[in-house]
Specification:
Layout lengths: L7 H13 L9 H14 L5 H17 L10 H16 L13
Helix pairs in contact: 1-2, 1-3, 2-4, 3-4
Amino acid sequence: MSLSQFAPQEVSNSLYGLAVMDTAWTDLHVTAQAALASALRRTSPQMTSQEVANVMYSLAIITFDAHYQALDDSSPAAQALWSLHRTALESFRRVPVSAYEVRA
């Protein structure tokens, strides 16, 4: 099965698995980076809150905690990484403010 066929949980689990194995974004081949970015864009609207949390946590570890090498912002690796971050921030469902309102 390829990433293009993964369900939201499988995409989330894949990113989490890479993160807990201490994989840096720069360790991945550019085709894997592009496939992960594409899979996240495709599945993010259907993700549960747990999957969203796992993706956000995983991206933080993959980006900042692993043995990270600075990226040239114009490189394909940097473009794919920032694409993942943009997708995560733009696509995940927001909790409406009304959910936090106290009802009398």
